[in-house]
Amino acid sequence: MNNIQILIVDYGSQYTLVIGRILRELGVRSLILPPKKVDEWLKNNTPKAVILSGSNFSVHQKGAPELPKLLGIALHKSHEVKSKYQILGICYGMQLLAHKLGGKVARPLAHREYGPSIVTLDTKHPLFAGVTKKTEVWASHGDTVIKLPKGFASIATSEGIAAMSNKDNRVLGIQFHPEVVDTKEGRKILQNFLELSKCEKDWNPTDLIHQIQKEVLDIVNKDGNKKNVVLGVSGGVDSTTLSAILAPVLGKRLFCVAIDTGGLREGELSELKANMKSVLSQERFLRKANLVVIDASEEFVKNIGKTIDGEEKRAKFREIYQKIFEEQIKKHNAGFIAQGTLATDIIESGKAGKSAMIKTHHNVGLKWKVEDLHPLRNLFKYEVRELARVLRLPSAISERNPFPGPGLYLRVVGAPVSKENIELVREADKTVADILKKHNLNKNISQLIVALLGVNSVGVKGDERVYGHSLAVRAVQTSDFMTAKGYYFPEEVMNEITSALTKHKNIVRVFFDMTPKPPATTEFE
Q1: Which residue is catalytic, options 99, 111, 179, 256?
Q2: Residues 238 and 358 in one domain
Q3: pTM score, whole prediction
Q4: Is 504 a catalytic site residue?
Q5: Number of folded domains that form the chain
Q6: Which structural domain range is residue 470 located in?
Q7: pLDDT-based confidence at 2, cuts 50/70/90?
């Protein structure tokens, strides 16, 4: 990639790829690299600025990642800090700068921040120009800078030092996370940093589509082999949009494979076929790609039904998922498998830099006999939706709410996954979705989860004692699925949902879950 204006050093934060997303939304290209690869890249490239990400490490921890040497940050005898590049350290990035330049980082009990916090900013500093003096931010740190390096000044406080700057404003540090949507004016802060760095707008969705097509073509046509490509499709926005990007350039060499896992929602297979037909039959495609649908519901239920553990379910789902795709790769003489994996999936799977593993994703980290392609790996749901709109895909695709790969298997929680339990959840999901659609609330919700909980309880129906299931209804609002707010249903809608669900003879109780992410994840498993 040439002419990258911003280099992001990935120290393993859950939010590192969110930084790249916000910069793209602001119109500026960036590149994310782990610390060990930065010096080699800087030998041949000159970015305008460098952002140092957060991390799950402490600067005092053995093996904690260091500052790349070629960043050119140096402390002179006059106690002035000079830097070759405009630098912004975020959270761990700020702590690392302070630690290496002679400041002091500690873990004071009184200044640990996790979640929303109020900071007071020096709005005369160009980093905070146009930002409210007191503003709400998102913080997530145990360590904090308690003493600044010489030549630095505090430019924000939150019962401690929340941001710092050297004299010429070339080296900056922020203790909170401006990239997270919960930092109310974080976008403006990052825009100010781009202006300090003299960056120019150089990114748009159309360019990205062409870039993805070129990247994939360069790989699959290498050495003149021109082998076929198998693409896993679920009917969701990610894989469907990827098929629309690849079909025009691969044509009949592209085999879009969908699997009926038995864990799909009501009518989802029919919707998948309709969505793919609208994509693969567009007149502007000179050569139409192929759609293959595999029914493997019996095999998935039999294999996954042996456990109630969430991670074991995902592992057993992956086994069958990979087995089926290996068969399709062989059948269609494919040299590559492509998947609509997003940055969120890679982060939560612990495959981005040094980020911690939150949960396994069915399409990340599998060892294939052919090369594994993830063309959307640096993008978030918000960005993929924008690509779908640019491609003029129907709103049924571009605005579609996400659904996990293992589907309803992850929504039978703490109970055996049987055909009966899957069918109960499928019916309940449709009931709730229809009620939300009737009240026009579905547009306010980023993802809806209706789950069967493995907690049976006593109830009364028709003056008789019953002992039946409990269901949980959860809806969230988010832009990137890295953080999310629980959605609060209106009371009358909650009552209608509860009444409708408990009409089922085996459902006794309904719980509503509004826990934000973090600490919860979007799904229960």
Answers
A1: 179
A2: yes
A3: 0.66
A4: no
A5: 3
A6: 407-513
A7: very low
